[in-house]
Amino acid sequence: MTVSTQAHPAATAGPGARRSALAQLTRVEFRLFLRERVGPVWGVGFPILLLVVFGSIPSFKKVLDGSGGLTVLDSYIPVLVVMSLALLGFVSLPLTLVNYRERGILRRLETTPAGRVRVLGAQLIVNFGMAVVTLAVLLIVARLAYDVPFPGQFGAWVITALFASAVVLAMGLFVASIGSTARAAAAIGNVLFYPMMFFSGLWLPIPAMPETLQHVAHAFPLGAAWESFQQAALGSWPPALALGTMAAWAVAFAVIAGRFFRWE
Amino acid sequence: MTVVIDVQGLHKEYGTTVAVDDVSFSVQEGEIFGILGPNGAGKTTTVECVEGLRVPDRGSVSVLGLDPRRDRAELTQVLGVQLQDSQMPERLKVAEALDLYSSFYRSPADWRALMEQLGLADKATTPFKKLSGGQKQRLSIALALVGNPRVAVLDELTTGLDPQARRDTWELIEGVRDRGVTIVLVSHFMEEAERLCDRVALIDSGRVAVIDSPAALAERAVSEQRIQFRPTASFDDALLASLPEVTSVIHRGDVVVVTGNADALNAVISVLARNQIVARQLRVDQGSLEDAFLELTGRGARNGSAHGDGQGKDELR
């Protein structure tokens, strides 16, 4: 039986062609992301601008009481990290997707062999890639310009970044699936962004919150993310509960998004 | 001839609105099949079921033996689609779009050649939002063909194109058909269907009114012929009015307009010849696809009629 050893030409060309389709989609989407400027300016530029502003405030160099030598600025780095992820996740990602849906781009892609997984995958890869760049720039600028030490437990910090990215991207898909227009998605993104950022300590550091509010904060995805980043920065492993909280939220948002995401 | 697309008893509702009531047709390999009908007749919904973008409530659709929903991955490899108003990301450049879409397919066409053929080569680095309506339309056609499809479904092919670009596009589509691609053309533009289609289905209120070749349909619609000429000598109207083939004779200045049945032209010319009168600037208006359309659907091709003037007129010197 020689038949079984003969590969169908189409079958061999298929997977190769598809791999390059994802690479091509990602490359094009990355270029578009940079050309659009909204993502780079808000998701990348804004947190770094805040770092520069905070870093220039003399009182932010004060060592916090009972923190083991942390300055106010040190304690703000995890908040800025969480904020850049949140901006990419629930502003940049859903705006692109909703815009594509409104303008029939997703529908057009539906008629090609590109496939939904690759279309969404390219968007997630681009935004995740930008998150990696932003976080790296934040850490490096903070280290070089403002003497903020690198995270004490770097491995834990990276793992936290992965969990936090997963949760914000899942939330972005959720925003894109319930917001039918770009305007609605922007509104939903904002409605999520402010309370989420409040509970990650953007305005009031979590340790300064009343105890009940602290519990609420830890139950929120970005509060849990802040806690994990903070622990990793201080050199310890984040509590499993915080990682678990992020994972649970990520799954919950992804499931809802998977159910309600519309392609037209 | 093999059947490439087979649609049987298609029915699709949106809420309480029946978009497609009962549509059946089959498309043969290598033909250009037109789907015509007034706005809201269900043309687009029908082809969306063929493309697998919509799930029919009832009925069956098969494209090259594939089920548009179940065999999605395989179908998209062999079916090229031009959607009615699909856009691209604003800052995506023409060459990038073609390169990207060609990467989706197993054996794509040469996108650079396609860009050339559609007159977009000098727009290669122009972002989508800077393209004119006609250029966007041509890009959309190029993207429908970039996967080297066996079947192409083109919805409103030349809408937004100027007359020259429209004729160029028709030539291109004929060239594509000559390469063996089966084409389904959705249109409300009669001249396009007459020029390109081997057969057309007229769809009205979600049902197929008739399927035939454009010429046969036009013939069917002919109830009267309208003959117009300048006689070399004046004559008494009764000379022609008395002919059994003629229904009316009207003088408009020195132009005579005669209406009558399909045999009226022969009768009129021989009577004139017998009286040594020559019919100069003779013009005969015969039935057109548009007449058939109006007759069969019982209403205007609202948008088509504006372009349709002057169709089906055989100028006989």
Structural class of chain A: mainly alpha
Q: Using only CA atoms, what is the Rg of chain B? A: 23 Å
Largest sheet of chain A: none
Q: How many beta-strand runs of chain A?
A: 0
Q: Can you list the strand order of the major beta sheet of chain B? A: 5-6-7-3-8-9
User: What is the percent of helical residues of chain A?
Assistant: over 70%
CATH architecture of the largest domain in chain B: 3-Layer(aba) Sandwich
What's the CATH class of the largest domain in chain B, please?
Alpha Beta
- Given as residue ranges, the uncertain stretches of chain B (5+ residues, pLDDT < 50) are 300-317
Contiguous uncertain segments of 5+ residues of chain A: 1-18
Strand portion of chain A: under 5%
Determine the number of helices of chain A (DSSP H or I, runs of at least 4 residues): 10
Largest sheet of chain B: 6 strands, mixed
End-to-end distance of chain B: 39 Å
For CATH, the homologous superfamily of the largest domain in chain B is named as P-loop containing nucleotide triphosphate hydrolases
How many domain units of chain B? 2
SSE topology:
The complex is a heterodimer of chains A (264) and B (317).
Chain A: H1 9-36, H2 38-56, H3 72-102, H4 105-110, H5 116-146, H6 154-178, H7 182-198, H8 211-219, H9 221-233, H10 240-260
Helix pairs in contact in A: 1-5, 2-3, 2-5, 3-5, 3-6, 3-7, 3-9, 6-7, 6-9, 6-10, 8-9, 9-10
Chain B: E1 3-14, E2 17-28, E3 32-36, H1 43-51, E4 58-63, H2 72-78, E5 79-82, H3 94-102, H4 111-117, H5 133-145, E6 151-155, H6 163-178, E7 182-187, H7 190-196, E8 199-204, E9 207-212, H8 214-221, E10 225-231, H9 238-241, E11 246-252, E12 255-260, H10 264-274, E13 279-285, H11 289-297, H12 304-308, E14 313-315
Parallel strand pairs in B: 3-7, 3-8, 5-6, 6-7
Antiparallel strand pairs in B: 1-2, 1-4, 8-9, 10-12, 10-13, 11-12, 13-14
Task: Give the tags.
heterodimer, A: mainly alpha, 0% strand, disordered N terminus, B: 317 residues, alpha/beta, Alpha-Beta Plaits, 2 domains, six-stranded mixed β-sheet, 12 helices, 29% strand
